[in-house]
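Researcher: Next entry in the queue.
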Amino acid sequence: MNPVSNPPDSPAAPRRLIDAHALRLHRDRAGMLGPADPLHRIALDEVQDRLAEINRPFTRIGIVTAWPGFWQAAFPDAHVTTAAERLDLPEGLDLVIHVLALHWAEDPVGQMVQSARALKPDGLFMAACLGGETLVELRDTLTRAEIETTGGLSPRFLPMGEIRDLGGLLARAGLALPVADHLPLRLSYRDLFHLAADLRAMGETNALTERLRHFTRRAIFARAAADYATRYPDPADPARIIATFDMIFLTGWAPDASQQKPLRPGSAKFSLTEALTPRTP
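Model: Structure for this entry, 281 residues:
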């Protein structure tokens, strides 16, 4: 792809990380293949468990997802919208769930800001996305195979945010009481090609702008598949392989005067030194 030329005195437009058109095609293809939804089912169970722990009803719910049919069935009364740069969310919601789409967002903070604006005061934002060690085994073996076969390396994998960095985005988006935690998953597959087929059916294949625009050589996949089977067998069945998916959950609240506030610096009644000094009998 040739770069777009800019007038001499104009700043160059920033290069986009994600090819939005390719991502949309991948998701459409996943729908036609009969989508694989194990990650969405796990995310749904986790979301429902977390909501059950919160002692309040949520009656006006917005959901942002690339799989609207699945989530509409789970929350029939919710306003479900597709994950786009501009979110179609009404105002005055008491809960927004952004599910398994944030890792593909060109501007994740912008997604959180739009979600926060749709919330009423003290409304809850909850996100589930992939990050951290997701597909670490596939990244390792395909990288090795491509370097050994071609002597070079092409952009194949979406950069994954770490839990600490993703948690920090909540405060940047203006959300209060931010919390980030993760659920590490280790799924078993027959082989690398079985995993690749599942990723296609989940719409999670390469949509990077700088990706190669031609088919990868068979020798690369063959070498990667053999290396994968050797390095990352399933402990329960060594004839199969393990694939890691790191599901990260983020929660934050739209600011409200009724929420707990951190203590003002210097307002503690006892110093840390006093607390740590042993008392004499």
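Model: The chain has a mean pLDDT of 87.
Researcher: Noted, moving on.
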